[in-house]
């Protein structure tokens, strides 16, 4: 499978945060959800992808090209939606279109109008009168109207009401009917990913914990609950993280089948959802070890 | 890059009427053209920088298919276009108000360009360096005061040199303008290059 985004051995260091030897591939034709807690490094990685910041060392390749030589070619093929407000407050959506459209040769006015109609966006209303949801929808329409090969979205659904979120997700589903398109989106709202994501990449403290197909995660990851006597040096190795409480332990495993075979009926095993995986990976509370 | 320059002009939208009103106001109060052209051009440029800071335009325009070199160069080019527009407006308004050409008008126009070049040469690299930071507002104020102070400094320096210094060294006022213009242009070009270097290494937050 062709990779649209390739990050290789990235190092990026700030005062209180660093990314060390991060490598990541995003496959063409799929939706990859990028999850992680606040401050885990999601926005930093996305800025690296957009060339807004540069790595201290390592390689960022987009569509197999390097930003240093092909910056404009790369950016022409990307649509972006940022979490913050980057639309001119005193301008209308129509004015914004007049500013953005000439930046792209492949911009389609008919598509722009179609999306605006579909998302019920007024063209002649100033941006400062738009709600948060309308601004996000406007950003998405701008990002889609030049028919990008890759859509990068940083927390696009954060702070949106359920109706707007649903509209947003439905539109992305329609975009993905074209198998040449790729979407990479970060989000806190894990439930938004289930209907659209093919792959999930999980980042924690600047490290990629895993990057796997969603169905693989759903099949293999599980929460295991049992009594503390079951834990010893041999059994602990089956878990990615363990939380001990007064009444027993709760642990995360990435091998549902193996746990079933090893512990049989002595433990309760339930499929883990992404939020639980994030929670346990982050450490949760109590005595947790993470491999 | 042409589109980026166009953007710098059209983003003000209706604010252009406010700028025109300010321009007429100053001219009615009989302010020197050098003052009106330099100040109004600086106000328009400050407004362009301010709009970008207000909405984090750094993020927007760097995500669009433009290089950082183009973004910086567009801003430096915009000053020239804005100067041309404002100078034309001042000449036109002057014609309407006074119904005659003033003999020193050309000198005033060139003088304002020299002041704009020098103030821009000092402040624009700082705008790119400190972009996305709270200090920007203070820098805008400094820029405006630098332009105002620059016009007066230029005016009195010119008078002093024209009356006292130049006759003693056998040099005409025109030569003074040529030399000053070349020096200001060199500084502006150097500042342009410096801003490109600064912006290329800047982390867009």
UniProtKB/TrEMBL annotation, chain A:
Position of the signal peptide: none
Gene Ontology molecular functions: ATP binding; ATP hydrolysis activity
Pfam families on file: ABC_tran (PF00005)
Keyword set, alphabetical order: ATP-binding, Nucleotide-binding, Transport
InterPro entries: AAA+_ATPase (IPR003593), ABC_transporter-like_ATP-bd (IPR003439), ABC_transporter-like_CS (IPR017871), ABC_Transporter_VariousFunc (IPR051782), P-loop_NTPase (IPR027417)
Highest taxon, organism lineage: Bacteria
Stored CDD domains: ABC_DR_subfamily_A
Record domain ABC transporter: where: 5-230
Gene3D superfamilies named among the record's database cross-references: P-loop containing nucleotide triphosphate hydrolases (3.40.50.300)
Protein name, per record: ABC transporter ATP-binding protein
Source species of the chain: Cerasibacillus terrae
From TrEMBL, chain B:
Transmembrane in keyword set: yes
Entry superkingdom: Bacteria
Bilayer-crossing regions: 9-28, 34-51, 72-97, 109-130, 137-157, 169-190
Record keyword DNA repair present: no
Record keywords, A-Z: Membrane, Transmembrane, Transmembrane helix
Protein name per its UniProtKB record: ABC-2 transporter permease
